[in-house]
Amino acid sequence: MSYLFDSIVKYTPKKEKVDFIVPERIREACIFRGYTYKEAAEKCNLNLREFGLYANGYKDIPEEKIFNLMKGFNFPKEFFYIIKWNRVDF
User: What is the torsional sign of CA 64, 65, 71, 76?
Assistant: First the structure.
């Protein structure tokens, strides 16, 4: 029966603004621009190791690095501060 509702019900992900830089958004920016981590780190004027730690969420991203990310990816500041919540069906 659920296959009938899949084509009818459209779910849009919930977006929430947060007060920290979201690592997932850095990865999305890399994919959108077609950059590898090495290329992205160079464009953002960051160390490759540090960039990888930031992008994978292993290290908190300092607020002062936002300008490097904005300039390197050519995205607005707000892009890096949004979390997308997706519905999970069990």
Answer: negative
